[in-house]
Specification:
Elements: E1 19-22, E2 29-31, E3 33-34, E4 42-44, E5 49-54, H1 63-66, H2 69-77, E6 89-96, E7 104-114, E8 118-123, E9 138-145, E10 150-158, E11 186-187, E12 191-196, E13 205-206, E14 214-215, E15 227-231, E16 239-247, E17 258-259, E18 262-271, E19 280-282, E20 286-293, H3 296-314, H4 319-329, E21 331-336, E22 342-349, H5 354-357
Parallel strand pairs: 1-5, 4-6
Antiparallel strand pairs: 2-6, 3-13, 5-18, 6-16, 7-15, 7-18, 8-9, 9-10, 10-11, 12-14, 12-16, 15-19, 16-17, 19-20, 20-22, 21-22
């Protein structure tokens, strides 16, 4: 149960949650953007459960391992010119009845299951050490072991030319595969790199930078068992998911994670009893605030202010006490440095706040 509890459940007493299936098809995805004018792919009531497909824009890095007929259809039927201004394949949007600007959208991520046993990491031109790595773009394909919940690199290749078009398909080529370091085992932690509500803006908003609406936060903790709170910006919220990963480190230093399609089960609720200025993450152990800015120092400052807001406005600490607590127990980390608008997250243990909220 969430520590941020509603004074009353937002579900109507007579409403029993329904389960919906939202498959990823050319008609239910939007590639590279959020848009408040998009018609919904699905309409639900607060409290409903959605089983949705999230498709990676990197399936073409190893199409024989990461694509099936349904994904191939998305790649073939969504025009390349319509994959803009961002890069991520987004499933949705989902319209949630009775959600209005000023509300919070509570998304409980219940399950995230890999669609295939393979994923791709691209050392991209937007990676943090692109120049230091000889300005070379390199793809590494990982295989997941379901029993051990680890991923192992199985082959790699230097991308021919420049990786510019989202959804580029590279045919299998054994002759161009490079040797990789043996014995590496990466913990698997499926999560969504990009998810959020439609921003209150005219026209398309790129999926690449994170912001108050959510977007490309790239926090690997946004996985099964976690709850995200997104500030609603337009009527119906218009929530979408995409950019699925099976593993990522804080920083996402090469430009991407292990990109892999996921099947996601989530429960979505409208919360009218509290507000928060930016995406707020709750896990079994932590509350996590975020800050975003092109300047990493300013992103750090924003994450700090958001944590201060959480502790004072939602847990009743004085500003002085909250500031002291932040310095002695809150951990600040770089979420990512490769999306133009950089990210910092701050986490505080739930156990420190439990008694104050009882």
């Amino acid at each position: 149960m969430s520590l941020i509890k509603p004074e009353h459940d937002s579900l109507r007493p007579e409403h029993q949650p329904r389960t919906h299936v939202l498959e990823a098809t050319p008609a239910t995805v939007h590639w590279g953007y959020f848009d408040a004018a998009l018609p919904p792919a699905l309409t639900i009531v607060s409290g409903d459960i959605v089983c949705a497909e999230a498709v990676t824009q990197h399936a073409g890095d190893a199409p024989e391992l990461m694509m099936d007929a349904e994904i191939d259809r998305i790649y073939r039927e969504v025009p390349k010119a319509d994959r803009a201004p961002g890069v991520h394949i987004m499933t949705g949007p989902i319209y949630i009845q009775d959600s209005q600007p000023g509300d919070m959208l509570e998304v409980r991520y219940l399950q995230m299951k890999p669609r295939f046993m393979y994923g791709s990491n691209l050392a991209a031109s937007w990676g943090h050490l692109f120049k230091e790595m000889g300005e070379k773009e390199r793809v590494t394909i990982y295989r997941m072991d379901d029993f051990s919940q680890t991923a192992t690199p199985v082959f790699a290749y230097d991308f021919p030319g420049k990786y510019e078009i989202p959804g580029t398909i590279t045919p299998a080529c054994d002759c161009c595969r490079a040797e990789i370091t043996d014995g590496i085992r990466v913990p698997v932690r499926p999560h969504l790199g990009t998810a959020g509500v439609a921003p209150n803006a005219q026209g398309r908003v790129s999926t690449v930078p994170p912001g108050e609406h959510g977007g490309n936060i790239d926090n690997w903790r946004i996985g099964a068992g976690a709850t995200m709170y997104y500030p609603v910006q337009v009527p119906g919220a218009l929530f979408s998911i995409g950019d699925p990963h099976i593993s990522q480190g804080d920083g996402e230093i090469s430009g991407t994670a292990i990109e892999a399609s996921l099947s996601v089960i989530m429960q979505i609720k409208v919360r009218k009893d509290f507000h928060f200025p930016s995406p707020l993450l709750e896990t079994q152990e932590f509350f996590i605030t975020h800050g975003f800015n092109e300047d990493l120092d300013l992103a750090m400052r924003q994450a700090s202010i958001n944590m201060l807001t959480l502790l004072t406005e939602h847990f009743g600490l004085s500003r002085d006490d909250a500031y002291s607590l932040m310095s002695v127990t809150v951990d600040f980390s770089v979420t990512q440095v490769v999306d133009g608008r950089q990210g910092v997250h701050a986490k505080i243990g739930r156990h420190l706040l439990k008694e104050r909220h009882a």
